[in-house]
Amino acid sequence: MDEKYFPEKIEEKWQRHWDETGAFEVEDGDARPKFYCLEMLPYPSGFLHMGHVRNYSIGDALAWHKRLNGFNVLHPIGWDSFGQPAEQAAIKRGINPRDWTEENIAHMRGQLKRLGISYDWRREIAAHTPEYYKWDQWFFLKMYERGLVYRRKSQVNWCPKEETVLSNEQSSGGVCWRCGTPVVKKDLDQWFARITDYAEQLLEDMKEIADGWPERVLTMQRNWIGKSEGAYVDFAIQNTDAKVRVFTTRIDTIYGANAVVMAAEHPLLAELLEGSSLKQDVTEFAERVRAAARNRTNASAEEVVKEGVNTGLIAINPFSGESLPVWVANYVLMEYGTGAVMAVPAHDERDFEFAQKYTLPIRQVIAPLTHAEEPSGFDPHLGVDQSTEMKEAFTEYGALVNSGEWSGKPSEDAKREMVQYAVEKNFGEAAITYRLRDWGISRQRFWGAPIPMIYCERCGVVPVPEKDLPVMLPDSAEFKGTGESPLAGVAEFVQTTCPQCDGPARRETDTMDTFVDSSWYFFRYCDPRNEGEPFDKEKIAYWTPVEQYIGGIDHAVMHLLYTRFWTKMMRDIGLVEFNEPVMRLMTQGMVTNQVEGTGEWKRMSKSLGNGVDPDEMIAAYGSDAVRLFILFAAPAENELRWQETGIEGAVRFLRRVYGMVYRWHGRLSDSSPREVAPASEELTIEARALRRKTHQTIARIAQDFEELHFNTSVAALMELSNTLGDFKVGPTEASASDLYAVREALESLVIMLAPFAPHVAEEMWAGLGHAEGLLSEVARWPQANDELARKEELEIPVQVNGKLRSRIHATPDTPEAELRTAALADEKTRSFIDGHEIVKVIIVPRRLVNIVVR
RNA sequence: GCCGGGGUGGCGAAAUGGCAGACGCGACGGACUUAAAAUCCGUUGACCGCAAGGUUGUGCGGGUUCGAGUCCCGCCCUCGGCACCA
After folding, report:
1. Closest to A257 in 3D by CA, of A329, A331, A323
2. Whole-angstrom Cα distance, residue A403 to residue A344?
3. Rounded Cα gap, residues A304 and A803, in angstroms
4. How far apart are CA A548 and CA A35, in angstroms?
5. Could you please report the per-residue DSSP string of A526-576?
6. What is the DSSP string of A175-244?
7. Is the CB of A223 under 7 A from strand B?
8. Which long-range contacts does A203-207 make (Cβ < 8 Å, 24+ apart)?
């Protein structure tokens, strides 16, 4: 061991050693309990950024901790290596996307190795390799067999900048998830995955992961799925056989309906208007709405002004028999529910606004319940005063009024009974709708997994036979950025023969959304070189589900929803036996840095010029210090403000600990057997205090790791090191029992430091004379001894009326009566209680005494 | 508007209803040095006081409790998500 701490030398040495010995390679079927620690795989953009470093530092801390606690830990890494940037490089600079991607991977792999993250590198995978994307295609075929993927022409979200389709999730908020460009609509033939078939399960199974996932992620997914329970109700159209079906969650308000309002794209519309004098007006309006919708960016939050036109048609309210006008309006969406609604202005804000604009009648049919009018005491015939104009819609539940025989009923009861009535009378039924749409997975890109389908003039759409997989991406294509897949221009790729009739046929030229690759990659890590199937069932049965997943919040809906869906699909085709792939999820916070000039803390980015290069930091301070700082500076979920003085603090700490180990290693490094623990009486007060601190620290950190509170773990290690630094006896004069206490403290410190600063920990472990093996091979996490951790002497605060007034000395065993006597006799306390009547004395054993006086 | 997080020193942050501010950064003072850096020692919520000590303090207003940063009610501010979803 060198006298001084040289991070470069130490880190290079241990990285090489771990690499050569395969220190972090794991096998399944081990007798130890398993632990799958997973970090979101990176896109190989070319350079690691601090967000990656934070992600992997968190994961590695956990992986080390679990390994040292006797778990068989799977900790893999790979590359999400299909995607836009490679293709952009191809378009702009004429570089082959594969070369670009593979160079980036090579560079980033080097960066990860310099960070010293404890991955099992044999399991590294990359999505762009045929060995991987073959299985994307295989899954596609399996899903096709089961009708879980289908093709249809649809209006899709189109990013004009990247010239490609986006799924609903990827165009959330009306902008492209990657580049922020406002999204437009476009009609295209697309492949869709039936995620909507799983809407209910995706909601229901949240129960299984509720304890392990952040509430906000579950909430976001819940909102995204957007379940709402209500009813379909059919409104007959006068003088026709047609019925317009509406969806409502408030059937209890149906007596307040003043119109039926349809979406401009509603298919029934043209049919109903046949021969009508208003047909042209309505058609023109509908066309205008459609055009507006196409051009709308809705990137801005501003609301679209409600507009509508009366169709002249009359609909019959099936409950009241009332005649209602049928309108077409831009605020009714074809994509949701049935594309038609009943307008109840008194009890719906949007209908209220619409009714005001076109001065349509507003009739109140729900009366608010005041305390005096609980449902039981409500007078159904009282009604509400319809003559006073409503200022806004009343959207809450209440009691029905002006609703015929239903008047007087509370909303909840009315809803249930009215649906039942609609069913009996055959004009409606209970219904559940979801906001979730099917997942559009076609992309007009080259750099993705080709969709394994063939279009034959005679046979139609034909899947590629499984034996012909993978459908290989050609080596190159022309990259023009026209919006059509570059594959369409590669004749050898497109032209093929039909697997059914051998006739001429052409291949699908779209590739799959890269979120397909990332939906199942962590299953592949369990069996990464399997050539006959995506993975061996037994292998994944051993390793999955993932115990802990760590990544950014930005994938709260997209990736994390898709992968939950994918798992359920795999379960249904018999590959896995559970519902949820990830038991615990941690969403790390952003890494921010001050922007020069404005001083604002913003996410590090090239364009803002506030990026920090991990390599430079490692070169300057060492990977151990960078990682330690990242985990210490803030709780993992919080924003992390990058401050170089903070890393300097981390280096100082490591140097101090290193110095301490060096100071003692002469006395401790002999490899003779460790002494037997001395009896407490043999130890000096100081040595007992050191052991106490050691065991308190072990206990605290054990708890912190359970909760993933890395920052407080590091703080606890610093406290232990401060206590060690204050230890009065030096190495030369230390007695055998002193040495025992020091060794115990130092070894505990070194082992518990390994998750944060593994290289220097390994070095110090060797310095403490462990001939039997490396820290990473033989060390075991220390166990806390409660007896040793227990304080010998306590300072008990004494409060008078809840205010701290004095302290008394006691031991943990001091009986309550004695604490009481001591507190009341205490001189300082007396000055506050003398002359007052003592009402009560509250004693919390080992914690405090509170004297209540009057 | 709806949903979900948060508001604690100069800063990042700690605190099973029981001594608020652990740990670190920064700042200030001191030692060492010709000097600086590094290192080490000390101080560091605010206010009053020479001091001992006292007062006050966790966004605001109430409440529960012997005792509230923590629990309850009502606000304010802030960050994030969704947003014509019937």
Report:
1. A323
2. 13
3. 59
4. 8
5. TSTT-SSSSS-HHHHHHHPSBSEEEEEGGGTTHHHHHHHHHHHHHHHTTS-
6. B-TTT-PBPEEEEEEEEEE-GGGGHHHHHHTHHHHTTTS-HHHHHHHHHHH--EEEEEEEEEETTSS-EE
7. yes
8. A203/A227, A205/A564, A205/A568, A205/A579, A205/A580
CB of A653 within 7 Å of some strand B atom = yes
A435: the nucleotide nearest its CA (via C1') is: B85
The overall average pLDDT reported for chain A is 90
Euclidean distance between CA atoms A726 and A678, whole angstroms: 21
User: Is residue A468 over pLDDT 50?
Assistant: yes
Structure tokens at A403: 């609703």
Residue A170: CB less than 7 A from any atom in strand B: no
Q: What is the ipTM of this complex?
A: 0.95
Exposure of A609 by Cβ count < 10 A (0-12 exposed, 13-18 middle, 19+ buried)? exposed
Least confident of A382-386, A475-479, A733-737, A800-804: A382-386
Which tokens in the block code for residue A776? 């990473």
In chain A, the largest separation of any two C-alpha atoms, in whole Å, equals: 109
Lookup: tokens for A483: 């919006």
Sign of CA dihedral A656, A661, A662, A664: positive
Which tens digits make up the pLDDT trace of A520-546? 999 999 999 999 999 999 999 999 999
The DSSP element (H or E) to which A809 belongs, if any, is strand A803-810
d(CA A526, CA A570): 15
Q: A470 preceded by cis ω (within 30°)?
A: yes
Show Cβ contacts of residue A173 under 8 Å, excluding neighbours closer than 6 positions.
A298, A299
Which residue, chain included where needed, has tokens 């609903």? A168
Q: Which residue is nearest to nucleotide B38 (CA to C1')?
A: A652
Nucleotide nearest to A629 (CA to C1'): B24
- In angstroms, the CA A378 to CA A458 distance is 70
CB neighbour class for A233 (10 Å; exposed up to 12, middle 13-18, buried from 19)? buried
Whole-number distance in Å between A778 CA and B38 C1' = 37
- pLDDT digit string, tens, across residues A90-104: 888 888 999 999 999
Output the CA torsion sign for A564, A569, A572, A574. Answer: negative
Q: Is the CB of A847 under 7 A from strand B?
A: yes
Q: Which two tokens stand for residue A40?
A: 């979101």
What's the confidence (pLDDT) of residue A753?
Answer: 97
C-alpha–C-alpha distance, residues A450 and A765, integer Å: 51
pTM to 2 decimal places: 0.92
Q: Report the pLDDT value the prediction gives residue A155, as an integer from 0 to 100.
A: 78
Query: Which pairing describes strands A848-853 and A838-844: parallel, antiparallel, or unpaired?
Result: antiparallel
What would the mean pLDDT of A360-386 be, rounded to a whole number? 63
List residues bridging with A720 in a β-sheet.
Answer: none
Asked whether residue A630's C-beta has any atom of DNA/RNA strand B within 7 A, the reply is no
Q: Does residue A789 approach strand B to less than 7 Å at its CB?
A: no
- From residues 275-314 of A, list those within 7 angstroms of strand B by Cβ: 298, 301, 303-306
* pLDDT tens column, A472-481: 999 888 887 7
Task: Using the structure block, give the residue that is written with the tokens 């005649």.
Answer: A323
pLDDT band at A385 (very low <50, low <70, confident <90, very high): low
Q: Is the pLDDT of residue A699 over 50?
A: yes
pLDDT in tens, A412-429: 899 999 999 999 999 999
Percent of chain A with pLDDT over 90: 62
Q: Is the CB of A435 under 7 A from strand B?
A: yes
Question: Could you check whether the bond before residue A815 is cis, i.e. omega within 30 degrees of 0?
Answer: no
